[in-house]
Amino acid sequence: MVTIEVGKESNGNYLIQNDQGFSSVGLNAPGGEEGLTPIELICSSLGLCVAIAIKTIIKRDGLEMESLKVEVGATKAQGSPSRVEHFQINVHLEGVFDEARKKKLITSAKRGCTIGHTLERGATIDLEIV
């Protein structure tokens, strides 16, 4: 099981830390220069997952890639409950890739992205005060 700890700091931000001690800063609302909001964090998780999947496939298939950039946008749903209803992922990939190869990369990246599968299919959430 992956465990992340989130704690409120005296400056109003949130310290996000993994088991290895790496930390990041979480913010309540967009516009801060010191960290990311929850929606930005979920977008970054999805983008990173897609990037890793594409890079793995390219390496496995012995292809050459000059650069890779993944942009993820999120649209919040109107009304309740508060949630994201749509993610748009744009992959900027430089290298020699024909349309058939690009289509295969998209299909394979979707298959290999744990975060994408979780968002599309849902996960149970157990919330307790301990």
UniProtKB/TrEMBL annotation:
<protein>
    <submittedName>
        <fullName>OsmC-like protein</fullName>
    </submittedName>
</protein>
<dbReference type="InterPro" id="IPR015946">
    <property type="entry name" value="KH_dom-like_a/b"/>
</dbReference>
<dbReference type="Pfam" id="PF02566">
    <property type="entry name" value="OsmC"/>
</dbReference>
<dbReference type="InterPro" id="IPR036102">
    <property type="entry name" value="OsmC/Ohrsf"/>
</dbReference>
<dbReference type="InterPro" id="IPR003718">
    <property type="entry name" value="OsmC/Ohr_fam"/>
</dbReference>
